[in-house]
Amino acid sequence: MKKFAGLFALLLLVVVPVVAQDAPSQDTPPQDTSQSSSSSSSQTTPEENQKPEKKVSTLFSPKYEISAGYSHRSFYTSGLPKVGMNGWYGSFTYDWKSWLAGEAEVQGVYKTIPVTEGGTENPSLYTLLAGPQIYPFKHHKFSPFGHFLYGEGYYRLAIGPYDPFGSSLTTYFSHAWEGGGGLDVHIKPHWSVRGMFDYGSSHFHSGSSGSTTGQGSYRFAAGIVYYIGER
């Protein structure tokens, strides 16, 4: 009997701590599994919470534009060979609206042509033109444009010196126009690079009957653009 009582007491010493560990703590109430499951089901993944990013607009609207660079003009008179002339251009543009501007441009191109008598022919051509410039899609990262410019042209032809005849200089003035367009590529907040292609016409040389001879030209130019102010 004493052995049985001792075994029973030993069993109580082992079982009571185990039951105490398995029993729920009174300090921490049992969790509501239904709420936790519903809350976990309502949670969304980071991809679902992520809002779509807004596109950053490339539109800008300058007030003034200054451009300068290299210019090549293929100048020809009907029935005569073309003369490729290299030089420079510079322009100033005022933007009345985001798509419409007024442009003034000055340009000078030159050529040195050796001749068999040992001398040279040095034609040079200058134009001062102005007119509207249109940006059909306004100013963005890539901004195509078109323009039509009208104004005055000056042609200068220096010949010689030829022994024993010396040298000569002839100059002509004429109205001139130019039409075409190009593309500006915006590379920095105030800077773009520009490419242009135009066709132009003038009437420099006078014939013996008093009539004029028309000249045509194709012009390619590449340069930079600097923007000043904002509209």
Structure in words:
- The chain has 231 residues and is an alpha+beta fold.
- It has a single domain, classed as Porin.
- It has 3 helices and 9 strands, in the order H-H-H-E-E-E-E-E-E-E-E-E.
- An 8-stranded antiparallel barrel has the order 1-2-3-5-6-7-8-9.
- A hairpin with a 7-residue loop joins strand 5 (120-134) and strand 6.
- The N and C termini lie far apart (108 Å).
- The model is unreliable at 1-28 and 33-42 (pLDDT under 50).
Topology:
Layout: H1 2-22, H2 33-42, H3 46-49, E1 62-77, E2 83-95, E3 100-110, E4 113-114, E5 120-134, E6 142-162, E7 166-188, E8 191-206, E9 212-230
Strand tally, please? 9
> Ranges with pLDDT <50 over ≥5 residues?
1-28, 33-42
Shape: elongated
Mean model confidence by pLDDT: 80
Estimate what percentage of residues fall within beta strands.
Answer: over 45%
What is the number of domains? 1
Indicate the CATH topology. Answer: Porin
Q: Compute the number of helices.
A: 3
End-to-end gap? 108 Å
Structural class by SSE content? alpha+beta
- Please give the CATH class: Mainly Beta
Q: What is the percent of helical residues?
A: 10-25%
CATH architecture: Beta Barrel
SSE topology string: HHHEEEEEEEEE
- Radius of gyration from CA coordinates: 42 Å
Strand line-up in the sheet with most strands: 1-2-3-5-6-7-8-9
* Largest sheet entry: 8 strands, antiparallel, barrel
